[in-house]
Design a protein that fits this description.
By secondary structure, the chain is mainly α. The protein has five helices and three strands, in the order ααβααββα.
Length: 110
């Protein structure tokens, strides 16, 4: 998958406020799907859809504990956020350069 497509998927997944809340909760550590649903006040089918989208974007991984295959534990994957941060840093650098050049241009005309 190209870097641009990966960033597009990350941004699309994070566009939903419930998914951002899931990411915030998972930033504190892995959690079962049922616990995430309870903490966000979502019915299990809705939570399942959000987790499926986050998993498809690569933001989360799903594991099953050996003692109970019915339980799904979700954890954040750092790489999509690292890639997004790099992209944002590059965009910030480019905008800063453009704004500095514009400022120099305006001040040179004064």
């Amino acid at each position: 998958m190209s870097a641009a497509l990966a960033i597009d998927r990350t941004l699309a997944a994070l566009a939903d406020p419930h998914r951002r809340q899931v990411v915030d909760l998972l930033a504190r550590g892995p959690r079962p799907a049922g616990e995430l649903a309870r903490e966000l006040g979502l019915p299990p089918p809705a939570m399942s859809r959000h987790l499926k989208a986050l998993k498809a974007s690569g933001l989360v991984d799903e594991t099953h504990p050996e003692f109970d295959a019915r339980v799904r534990i979700y954890a954040l994957r750092p790489q999509p956020m690292i890639d997004l941060m790099r992209w944002l840093e590059e965009a910030e650098r480019l905008w800063s350069e453009q704004l500095a050049a514009f400022k120099a241009h305006i001040e040179g005309q004064a």
